[in-house]
Design a protein that fits this description.
mainly beta, Umud Fragment, subunit A, 7 strands, 41% strand
Length: 104
């Protein structure tokens, strides 16, 4: 799959298969995630937590000096990132796109 934007060699993409992720991108779009991209407030990230082997797509926010991760799926409260919350940001969403070969 050819892309027309810069990423690190470790970047990867995920195809959005359901409407549940429409906050990130419409169904059928791909989202590029880059482990080496700089994180900033409002970016979507892939994260995991201590004692949880699953990966979660969440939105990273900084508000009033507090860093949080807000789940994309479900109506769950934001998780504040602090010394007691062991979260690992795996990759940052950098671009939404539809590959040319998928456009009909």
């Amino acid at each position: 799959m050819a892309i027309d934007f810069e990423t690190s060699k470790r970047a990867f993409s995920i195809k959005i298969e359901t409407e549940e992720y429409k906050a990130i991108a419409p169904k059928g779009y791909y989202v590029c995630f880059d482990p080496d991209a700089e994180i900033s407030s409002g970016k979507y990230v892939i994260a995991n937590f201590e004692d949880d082997e699953e990966l979660h797509i969440m939105q990273y926010k900084i508000f009033a000096g507090k860093k949080t991760l807000r789940p994309v799926l479900g109506d769950y409260a934001a998780i504040e990132l602090n010394d007691e919350t062991k979260a690992n940001i795996v990759a940052v969403a950098t671009k939404r796109f539809i590959p040319a070969e998928d456009i009909t």
